[in-house]
Amino acid sequence: MTDNRRAVFLDHSSLDLGDLDLGALHDSFSPLHLHAHSSPEQVAERLQGAQVAISNKVAINAQALAACPELRLILVTATGTNNIDLEAARRQGITVSNCQGYGTPSVAQHTLMLLLNLATRVADYQQAVAAGRWQQASQFCLLDFPIMELAGKTLGLLGHGELGGAVARLAEAFGMRVVLGQIPGRPLRADRLPLDELLPQVDALTLHCPLNEHTRNLIGARELALLKPGALVVNTARGGLIDEQALADALRSGHLGGAATDVLSVEPPVNGNPLLEADIPRLIVTPHNAWGSREARQRIVGQLVENARAFFNGEPLRVVN
Fold it and tell me: Can the peptide bond before residue 40 be classed as cis, meaning omega within 30 degrees of 0?
């Protein structure tokens, strides 16, 4: 390797928990500097003299880019690139490549896990056992909370790309009927139902679409009211897709049978969030970890290596700008 391949990973601890093989990544650069975390104030300083920046969620803004004239490539260890000022990178001639499709099995199984937990009321039954209610029961079992069978139910999907398709296949394996919804801002398709037609007929709704100006608060109070009483809602996409206060209200009112989300509008939720209030019933919140299996994170490493080698060979991959 020549010395014009100096790379800096600004937040490697968000990807590697000490369980990944980073050998090929180190071999792709000369050298690779790893930082567990980087504050906004540290970004420009740490990228000085680097040709390659690697970031998961650390923001690289126009000011930082301007301070790093040697930067040639930004590798994002995720699909979303909203933490990078793409226009500034374009003006500066910096290539930005992301990772794609790495977490499909992990996120798809997490989506079904959340749906199954809601349908079977696992959290409620666990709490009942912990409180001693089974031990005090007059018969062999507790059936205090209604259990829904997924077989024969209708699942509405908003987003039917690689991930949505994987969720659809798993749902169908449980005997569910899958219907697809039209995403605002996209060309109309005959096999996609408008939201107002989709929502009243589904027993469960899962979201797998990107967050943009067309989809922010896609599911608000009006849309939640269109769902059947007792319907389930699962979001493993982006927190801003659902109006969080409206979702909390719909759960408190008893209209929904339950909801689960792996994402919030601000992460981490250091200033609180309507969905973190203690009095919301039938809600599961997981900490944006649906993507985080070891296998998925190792696939990201593999794609980083591919993206770096392709760039240095003059044929960049997964370019987003």
Answer: no
- Say how many CA atoms lie within 13 Å of 291 toward its Cβ: 25
Nearest to 207 by CA among 172, 187, 183, 176: 183
The residue assigned the tokens 């601890």 is 13
267 contacts 288 by C-beta, under 8 angstroms: yes
Token pair recorded at residue 176:
């569910």
| Residues 6 or more apart whose Cβ sits within 8 Å of residue 131 | none
d(CA 266, CA 240): 8
d(CA 235, CA 155): 13
Predicted model pTM: 0.90
Query: Mean per-residue pLDDT for 65-89?
Result: 95
Distances 231 to 1, 140, 148, 256 between C-alpha atoms, Å: 57, 29, 10, 5
Question: What Cα–Cα distance (Å) separates residue 188 from each residue in 48, 181, 185, 192, 282?
Answer: 47, 10, 9, 7, 34
pLDDT tens sequence across 133-151: 999 999 999 999 999 999 9
Query: 29's torsion region: left (phi>0), alpha (psi -120 to 50) or beta?
Result: beta
DSSP structure class, residue 228: P
Closest CA to 160 of 201, 127, 206, 116: 206
**In the chain, at which residue ranges do the beta strands (DSSP E only) sit?**
7-9, 32-34, 52-55, 73-76, 95-97, 154-158, 177-180, 204-207, 232-235, 258-261, 283-285
Indicate the SS3 state at residue 32: strand
Residues marked active site are found at: 238, 267, 288
pLDDT of residue 174: 98
